[in-house]
Each structure stands twice: as structure tokens, then as C-alpha cells.
């Protein structure tokens, strides 16, 4: 069995006071030993999060650019993320895709550069409501996964996050059956298009309104290897989500 992976995505929330309180809660909580935990901090708080979180908890940036340095006002590079002692980056999040207009192509380039820079990548995919209703969920997530897979040489540094856009921040969680169905199909896609070994070892995590109340059932599905948690990752209930498989 693969190591369960729980990511928190703080998005553009919190300040040093509230994030400091959350960090204290996480540092002093009893966390399941066999679950890998990573918190996605806002850029300006990466250093703060890494300096204050216990070493057993990883930190992720929420985005980065596709090259190491240069005249790209407002962007940050994997090298800078690593320089803060941070080991992960979230790429392709639906808010990057749909609020900031990032294309599959740009996300692929970012994935390639982050991996070349030795960062771990939490690569996000997921269909919009109208795509699900039109019956095109598989086409959408396969195309997004292809654009990522084309840029991955070493899958051991990649976690794939399936996050249906209609479930993000809406309180409308995918049912355990809906999540399992897409995760299983994604794993089969990887088996056919990447390799048997990667299909068996890659973590496919679910995101979209995961809470302390629904995490156990979602996490008990065969192909759900963890979560990416937004809103609930800012609350003490994040500890219950981390311990969903304990
Ligand atoms: P949510 O966000 O848990 O608030 O729905 C999930 C995400 O965007 O990763």
C-alpha cells in the first residue's frame, strides 16, 4: 500500500497570527505516523511556515514559474522555494487554471521545471460542472493528465490531485463513489499511458470540500490515496483529516 498523503492548501488566507496558531495546533497534535502531510502556504509565508512547522510536516508553495530566474515581476522560481527549505509546489490548481487563465501547456512547462529543480509536485486536475454534466469528465481529466505526464520523467516526485471544480469551496463534495470512479479510471489511464509501476505507486489524492466529517469514507476508497484540503486545512479539524486512515 502507498503512503497516504494529505495536503493542506491555505490559498490566500491567514496572517502570521492565525497561521502561527494553526502551526502550533499541528505541531502539538498526534498525527498518524504513516501519513505524509504537506501544508501549502502563501508565498510570503513560505519561510515563516517552514521555520515554524515541525520537520515531520512538509511545506508547499502554491505556484511557481517555469524558469529559474529573470525579468518576471511577481513570480517565484523553484530555486527560491528550495532556498526557503520548502520541498513541494502545487501546480495546475483549478484557481490557477480558471481565475488566472493558466493553460495545460504552461502548467506542463512549470511541472517540468519544478521537477528538474528537484521539487515535489502536487499536480491538480479536474472537470468543471458543465463538463461533468456534458459527460466529458474523462476526456477533460485525461487531457489534463497527458499535459502533465508529457513533462514527467520521475513520477516518484509527483502526487496527482483530482479536484472536481464543482466541489472546490462549494461544500458539494464528490460522493465516495464519484471520487473512486474517476481515481480508478485515472489509474488505468496511467497504466496504459505511463507504466504499470507508476500506476501502482503514484498517489492519486482527492480534493473538493473534504472535511473531518466526510474524510473517513472518502479515504477508505481503494484508489483514494489522500486529500488536498482547502477550507478545512485552516481549522483544527485538519488533524482529523490527516488521521482519516489512522
Ligand atoms: P476546498 O478546496 O477543500 O476548500 O474545497 C480544495 C482545494 O482547492 O484544494
Automatic annotation (TrEMBL):
Pathway field: Carbohydrate degradation; glycolysis; D-glyceraldehyde 3-phosphate from glycerone phosphate: step 1/1; Carbohydrate biosynthesis; gluconeogenesis
Gene Ontology CC terms, in alphabetical order: cytosol
Annotated EC: 5.3.1.1
Superkingdom of origin: Eukaryota
Reactions accelerated catalytically: dihydroxyacetone phosphate = methylglyoxal + phosphate; D-glyceraldehyde 3-phosphate = dihydroxyacetone phosphate
InterPro entries, A to Z: Aldolase_TIM (IPR013785), TIM_sf (IPR035990), TrioseP_Isoase_bac/euk (IPR022896), Triosephosphate_isomerase (IPR000652), Triosephosphate_isomerase_AS (IPR020861)
Molecular function in Gene Ontology: methylglyoxal synthase activity; triose-phosphate isomerase activity
GO biological process terms held by the UniProt record: gluconeogenesis; glyceraldehyde-3-phosphate biosynthetic process; glycerol catabolic process; glycolytic process
CDD domains: TIM
Pfam families: TIM
Coiled coil start-end: none
Ribonucleoprotein among keywords: no
Biological function: It is also responsible for the non-negligible production of methylglyoxal a reactive cytotoxic side-product that modifies and can alter proteins, DNA and lipids. Triosephosphate isomerase is an extremely efficient metabolic enzyme that catalyzes the interconversion between dihydroxyacetone phosphate (DHAP) and D-glyceraldehyde-3-phosphate (G3P) in glycolysis and gluconeogenesis.
Protein family (similarity comment): Belongs to the triosephosphate isomerase family.
Protein name (Swiss-Prot/TrEMBL): Triosephosphate isomerase
Source organism: Oncorhynchus tshawytscha
Amino acid at each position: 500500500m502507498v503512503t497516504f498523503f494529505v495536503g493542506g492548501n491555505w490559498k490566500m488566507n491567514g496572517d502570521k497570527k492565525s497561521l502561527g496558531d494553526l502551526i502550533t495546533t499541528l505541531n502539538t497534535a498526534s498525527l498518524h505516523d504513516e501519513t505524509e502531510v504537506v501544508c501549502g502556504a502563501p508565498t510570503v509565508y513560505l519561510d515563516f511556515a517552514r521555520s515554524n512547522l515541525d520537520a515531520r510536516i512538509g511545506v508547499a508553495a502554491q505556484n511557481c514559474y517555469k524558469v529559474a530566474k529573470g525579468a518576471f515581476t511577481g513570480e517565484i522560481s523553484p530555486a527560491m522555494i528550495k532556498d526557503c527549505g520548502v520541498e513541494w509546489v502545487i501546480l495546475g490548481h483549478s484557481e490557477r487554471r480558471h481565475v488566472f487563465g493558466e493553460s495545460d501547456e504552461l502548467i506542463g512547462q512549470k511541472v517540468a521545471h519544478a521537477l528538474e529543480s528537484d521539487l515535489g509536485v502536487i499536480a491538480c486536475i479536474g472537470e468543471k460542472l458543465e463538463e461533468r454534466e456534458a459527460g466529458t469528465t474523462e476526456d477533460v481529466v485525461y487531457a489534463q493528465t497527458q499535459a502533465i505526464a508529457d513533462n514527467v520523467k520521475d513520477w516518484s516526485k509527483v502526487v496527482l490531485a483530482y479536484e472536481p471544480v464543482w466541489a472546490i469551496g462549494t461544500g458539494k463534495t464528490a460522493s465516495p463513489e464519484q471520487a473512486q470512479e474517476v481515481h480508478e479510471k485515472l489509474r488505468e489511464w496511467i497504466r496504459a499511458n505511463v507504466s504499470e509501476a507508476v500506476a501502482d505507486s503514484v498517489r492519486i489524492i482527492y480534493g473538493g470540500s473534504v472535511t473531518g466529517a466526510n474524510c473517513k469514507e472518502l479515504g477508505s476508497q481503494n484508489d483514494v490515496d489522500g486529500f488536498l484540503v482547502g477550507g478545512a486545512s485552516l481549522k483544527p479539524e485538519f488533524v482529523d483529516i490527516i488521521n482519516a486512515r489512522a
